[in-house]
From TrEMBL:
Keywords in alphabetical order: Magnesium, Metal-binding, Transferase
UniProt protein name: Polyprenyl synthetase
Pfam family, one: polyprenyl_synt
Cofactor(s) the protein requires to work: Mg(2+)
SUPFAM superfamilies with a match to the protein in the record: Terpenoid synthases (SSF48576)
Family: Belongs to the FPP/GGPP synthase family.
Species name: Roseivirga thermotolerans
Amino acid sequence: MALQLKEIQAPIASEMIDFEEKFRSFMKSKVFLLDKIMSYIVKRKGKQMRPMFVFLTAGACGQITDRTYRGASLIELLHTATLVHDDVVDDSNFRRGFFSINALWKNKIAVLVGDYLLSRGLLLSVDHEDFDLLKIVSEAVREMSEGELLQMAKARNLDITEEIYYDVIRQKTASLIASCCAVGAASSGASLQTIQKMKEFGLNVGMAFQIKDDLFDYGTSEIGKPLGIDIKEKKMTLPLIYALSKASNGDRRRIKSIVKSNRQTNKKVQEVIDYVKQSGGIEYAKEVMQGYYQKSREVLLDLPETAYRQSLLDLVQFTIERSK
C-alpha cells in the first residue's frame, strides 16, 4: 500500500499543528498589506516536507525543543523568501496551483515581501542567539544560489556532464533538505558528529528527490507537471545526459538541436522523450536514485530504533515513490 504523508507524520502530529501557529506568529507584521500577504503565503502551504524533516530528525537524534520550532521556521522563512524572488525572476504567475505573489501584488511588492521574510528569519535566529542554526541555513541558501547560477551558465551550450549535473542538484535541491536534517539534529542537542551524519543523510535524500523529479518529465507516473517541461525549458536532466553520453555524433547533434530550438513542437519534444527512453536513460536514472536512497537508509539505521526513525525511513521511501 502506498505510504501517506499523514501516517508518516504521526509521531510529530501535535508538533506540526503547534508549528503552524508559531510560524504564523513569526511572520506577523503591523503593516496591513504585509500581514495580508503573509496570511496568503501560510494558506497555500504544500506537503510541509521540510518541517517534517526538521522535527523527525530532532526526535530521532534527541529531543524536540523550542529551538526545533525556531529552526524549522527559519528554514521556511528563508526558503519562502527565495521562492518569492524566484517567481519574480522567472516571471511566473503560479506557484503550487496558486497565484504567485508577483501575479497578485506586482513585482515591486513581491521583492519587498521576499526581503521582509529574509529579515524575519535572520532576526528570529539573532534574537534567540541560534547562530549555529543560522549558519547551517545560510550556507544552504548560498549553495542554492550558486547551483542555480552554475546551471544557467552551463545550460546555454547544453554542455552539462553527469558530474556537473550532480554538483547542480546537490547545491540547488539537496543542500536545502540537508540543512533541514542538520538543523533538526543541532536543535535536539546532538553531537557535531551526529549533525554531520544527518546532513549527509539529507544530501542523499535530496539527490534522490531531484532525480525523481527529473523522471516525472518523461511520464514515468501520474505527474504534477506537464510532460516534457524540462526539455522545453532547455534543462539538462540525468535521463537526457545519460542518453546523449551514449549517442552517436549524429544523434547527439539532432537531439541537442531540438532541445536548443526556440520553436519546439510537442511532436519534437516527444521525439526527445522517446529517444531517452530507448537509450536506457530512464532505467539509469532510477538506478542512480536507488543508490542515493540506499545510502540515506544506511545512515538512519545507525540511529536508535524509535517511531521518529521509522517515520524518517518512510519519508525517504515516500520521496522516491511519490507520484507528484
